[in-house]
Structures are given as structure tokens and as C-alpha cells.
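Hi there, hope your week has been kind to you so far. Thanks so much in advance, here it is:
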Amino acid sequence: MNKLQLLLPILAFIFIIGPAAHADITDCKNGYKFNPRSGVGCQQINCNDIEHAHYSYTGACICGSSGSIHEKPTDPNKECSYPLDHGSCPGCIYACVGFDDPCPGEISDTDIPELNNPPPTQIETLPADQSNQPTQNANTAPPPIGSPMPPTQNPPATQPTSTNLSTAGIIPNPSQATANTGMTCQKFCARLTRGNQYDEILKAEGEYPNCNCIIDNKDDHNRLTETITINGDSRTTYTYDPETGSLLTKNTISMLAERERIRQSLGYKYSEEQIDAMLDDAVIEKWFQARMQNIVTKTGITHPQFWWQHMVALWDHGYGNSADFVDTYNFGRCGDSMLWLERNLSADLKLTGKKDKTSEAMLSITGEKYGNMVNHTALFIRPPGYSNITWADTVQELLAKTQQGGLTKTDINGIDPKLLDAKVLDPYFKKTMTVREFIKGWSVIKIS
């Protein structure tokens, strides 16, 4: 959203209500203080007083090594937060514990036994050099949403997320979701390529999910670096020295066992088959159109409601952003709208538990230019075809780039083309687009 466009309504607002404007802008909830230099606006006051807690680069209170490129899954990275209606400090973190440890005063989850206590699987031992698997950024419970937009916390499962109930049943139930929505062995085998021009699909046969694949992945000089063979549940990966062509490693795993091990180690709620089906392009498009039916945001600078929307938002919650505001008024600024959509999609995907990570399915994407004088933010949906481990690794890389100041044109040129074709939901303009379309015209792109 163009910050320059906000100047006139802000000035008009200040002129109308005079000295009271400053109090509204800095009116943070109990337990928070206003920090205009942070990305969150209202910061939790006692974050540094909580053991293992600290402020993130956006000013959000997070736990352990959450958000760090060197994040350790054994650290106390799980944030224990008060409810959003808590009197003394709504939504505040009060303790940091290990991912598998209950929060102080918390009863262990028992509502979804098949997810909280998955059946044991026999895991094939990997070679020593394969043992360090990338881990997902744990700074997503609660996640920081939209730099420089503020973070939001997953709402409790019992909290109503919208007065618009027209999206009920559009997203498949997790227990019924499968990847067999048009999936074939040809498509499945093609996912094993790295996206380089010289990669080859030598074999793609069978009936999904019982596929037989042979894939040769090559570097930019057409030199073989990897061969992957799939025979039902068995996957063998051969890696080669591109200079000499000699075999470096051979690794055979059970795909089912390995995927379950990875899912648990990352803290993901769903298998990659489930998340692919739930985020199917047609499903998300239908869900988004239904969700936007009651939204009346006006984006034209010449429309009187455009100015009214910004004045009401500034009066209601200042420079910060509020998902509740959109539920109340059915309009909002771009930050309000993105947080509102993220909250509702999280609810419909059932990613509202204390251990759930919204980044498993979505991220925020923000474009900035002119030193962030002009910016806009929307919701970036995880594209299909990514394994959980590859997606977690991708998320970490994007977050690390954002922490370093954002993705430049050089960074974007090196992005996996699949990411550039991923769907972006823009609730402010009420339209969908690809990442490739969203990033046009922005000097810096940030993902969070």
C-alpha cells in the first residue's frame, strides 16, 4: 500500500480530533508499549525478562533460537502465550519450552490422537553425512506476518474467525485429503527434477502412488550430479562428482517412513500429500472468492470510502494492523486484510493449535520501494509439489534473506521457478496472482 496515499487522511484525522490522535496511535494493550521503530508497533514489555525469550528483528517476542538461520530443534523454541482476551497481557508470551513439552498449566493435546501420536515407523538409518536435516523456522507459533507488518498469533480453535461462513467445507478434511487429485506417476516423477534445463526424466511408469521413476539431474554444464530411482516405496539417490563422473554416495530409504520422520521432526501437522490436496489451486481459488464475498474495501484514491476506511482504521488501532477490524467493518488496509485472511485460512486448514505452524501452508509476501515509503503485503500460498523437508529448507532460506534486508533482483533470479508461479492471495485488491506478478515493480521483497 502506498504510504503517501495515507498522508492526506492521516492529516485530516489529526486536524479533526487534535491532541487525542496521539493517544489513539500509541494506545497499546496492557503489557505492551508503542515502538514506532519496530515492525510490530506495540511490543510486549517484559519479553527480555522471560527465560529463553528475546525480541526478533521485527520486534516480536519469540523463544529460543526461533527465526535464526542456526535454529536448533532442541532449544526451547515453543512459545507459550496467554489467550487474546487475557486481561493483563493479551496474547503475551509467558514461557518458552521445548517443542514436545507442554506449557505451564497446559494439558497435553488429545483431540487428534492420530496426529499427536502417530504410529511408530521403522526408519532406515541414513549415512552420517545425511543426518543433519534442515529444520523449519519455529518463529511461526505465533508467526511474524509481513515485514514491516506486525506479527499475529494463531487464534484459539474456539475463537470465531469471521462472520462469513460461506467457506465451510471448501477445503478438504485433513483425514480425507490425499494427493490423488489428478496426480499421475508422470507428474510425480517430474517433481524429482531440480528445474535445470538439462534434467531428464528417463522413466515414469506405474499407477500413482506405486510409481517407477528414473531421473537424471544435471548442472548448468550438462554434467550428471544426481540420479534418483523410485520403485514403489523405495527411493534410491545416487550422487556423482560432476568433474569426474564418479559415484560419491548411494542412499536408499523407505519414502513413507522417511516422510513421517521428517514431518515429525519439523513439527508439521500434515503430510505433503495432505497439504497438496488442501492447497490445491482450484480449492484455494474457490475458498478465496467465497471469503471475499462480504469484503467492501475500496482501493481507488478518488473514492470517498477510501479515505473513510483509512481514517476509521487509524482511529480504531493506529498504525498497527488488526484482523478483528476487518471482521467488524468488512474493510481494512492492506496489513489488516492480510492478517485477517491469514487467520481465516489458518482456521479452515485447522492450523490453530499451539504446536501448529502456519508457515507449513502459507507465508506473507511484502513488496517495498523508495526506502519502504511505498509497500504492499499479501498472502503467499505454498505451491504444490514440495516435500516437507524441501519446503522447510526453502522457508528458512527466504526468511534468512529477509533478515538480511530482503530479496533483491539477483536473489529472485535464483529462485526456484515453481516459487515464482505460486499463488498469491491479495485480499486488499480482492484478486489472486502469481508471485512472479506480485513482485513486479518492487525494489525489495520480504517473506515472513
Notes: The first strand starts at residue 32 and ends at 34. The first helix runs from residue 3 to 17. DSSP finds 14 helices and 16 strands in the chain.
